[in-house]
Amino acid sequence: MTIYNKRGPAPIDKGWSWVVMSAVMLSTFLEMGLYKSFGIFFVEYVEKFGSSATMTSVISGVYLAGYSFVALIMMTYGLGRISCRQSVMIGGVFISIGYLVSSLATTIEIVILAQGVFTGL
Description:
Layout: H1 16-36, H2 38-49, H3 53-76, H4 84-103, H5 108-120
Helix pairs in contact: 2-3, 3-5, 4-5
């Protein structure tokens, strides 16, 4: 009777893939959480800026349009020119700028520009 020792090659990532997976999960939860909690912001924007519901809902529409357009461009052309890591870093900077400017906004138009456009990028 022959006993075989099936020892495969050493793992390439040495456990680093769990850190990457956790970071991606956290990023996804934050992004979807912010998008899904827009209803809470919606009521506050209407009360704070005295804007109509239609004008306030433009924020979400601009966000989704920008997100879809930039995703199409990045998947088609962008990732051939920059790495995934650079793409995530650039996106994080745009989202941070968008929410920072949105928190300092004095009119609903600035919120549309900041939260809709910058966060959608």
